[in-house]
Amino acid sequence: MENEQNERKRPITYWIGEGGGWLLRHVVSGLAATGITPNMFTFLGLAVNSWAAALFAMGRFRQAAAVLFLAGFLDMADGQVARRVGRVTAFGAFLDSTLDRYSDLALYMGLVVHYTLIGRSFYMALAAVAMASSFMVSYSRARAESIIPSCKVGFMERPERLVLLIMGGVFNRMAQVLWVIATISTVTVIHRVRFRMRARHKHSEQSANASVHARVTGFSRNDFSTGAATISCTRCLSASTSPRATSFVSRVSCRWTVIFSG
């Protein structure tokens, strides 16, 4: 009885999410049963995005928004299908991310062509700025995460940008949408740069507070597994007096303090 009352008290957004999840699971099951590989869905998504870009270039914003909605579904379906059929691979994720960048480029180029054809040079430049700032959102995260574990701060990731482009097409307010994308994307890039700087300063402080020592003499490689050596390292093993110790610990991430003690 109490559970039924709790179910009734759930907000309408919960039931919308549940309904959408139920529909998505059944659609993904149907797509997985077709035998089409996840990578094929990724290429299909690029083709549909290119179709939407062509419609943007011709000024058919509402039709482009409808096609872009389908493209967004395909972008989401490839990963879902990959998980359903057990074919999640690192290459698939790399391919999906790469083709997403081409899809973004096609959409914004469609808008650039449209505003060029109608002689609106200011909005042509605005679409180009929105395109560049959108790319920088993805690039800043990828570059930061090659140095630090995670950099997911900020807003205006690709799903948010697609939703805004769809809304701009449906309500014929693309100029306002481009302003929002260009502005918030730039703010997000600045936020991520600041986040990376703070992470670097934090790492530098940790390195400065710990001393780099190596006291290793006369041991074999097996001594590491038996704990016969003591090594304390926070950044590099350049101070090590043993070439064997240096070659062994150079494979250890410099973010950590490594201690082997007997």
Describe the structure.
The radius of gyration is 26 Å and the shape is globular. Helix 4 runs antiparallel to helix 7 (158-170) and helix 7 (158-170) runs antiparallel to helix 8 (174-209). It is mainly α and 262 residues long. 72% of the residues lie in helices and 2% in strands. Strands 1-2 form a two-stranded antiparallel ribbon. It has two domains: 24-206, CDP-alcohol phosphotransferase transmembrane (TM) domain (Four Helix Bundle (Hemerythrin (Met), subunit A)), CATH 1.20.120.1760; 211-249, no CATH class. The chain has ten helices and two strands. The model is unreliable at 210-262 (pLDDT under 50). It has helices spanning 2-9, 12-33, 38-57, 61-85, 90-117, 121-145, 158-170, 174-209, 223-226, 243-249; strands spanning 213-215, 230-232.
Give a short summary of the structure:
The protein has helices at 2-9, 12-33, 38-57, 61-85, 90-117, 121-145, 158-170, 174-209, 223-226, 243-249, and strands spanning 213-215, 230-232. By secondary structure, the chain is mainly α.
Number of domains: 2
The overall average pLDDT, rounded, is 77
Q: Helix/strand-derived class?
A: mainly alpha
CATH class of the largest domain: Mainly Alpha
**Major sheet details:** 2 strands, antiparallel
Categorize the overall geometry. globular
Q: What would CATH call the architecture of the largest domain?
A: Up-down Bundle
Unreliable runs, pLDDT <50, ≥5 residues? Answer: 210-262
Radius of gyration: 26 Å
Helix count from the secondary structure assignment: 10
Q: Fill in the CATH topology of the largest domain.
A: Four Helix Bundle (Hemerythrin (Met), subunit A)
Question: Could you spell the SSE succession in H and E letters?
Answer: HHHHHHHHEHEH
Task: Please give the order of strands in the largest beta sheet.
Answer: 1-2
Strand % is: under 5%
N-end to C-end Cα span: 62 Å
Q: Please name the fourth-level CATH homologous superfamily of the largest domain.
A: CDP-alcohol phosphotransferase transmembrane (TM) domain
Work out the number of β strands. Answer: 2
- Percentage of residues in helical conformation: over 70%
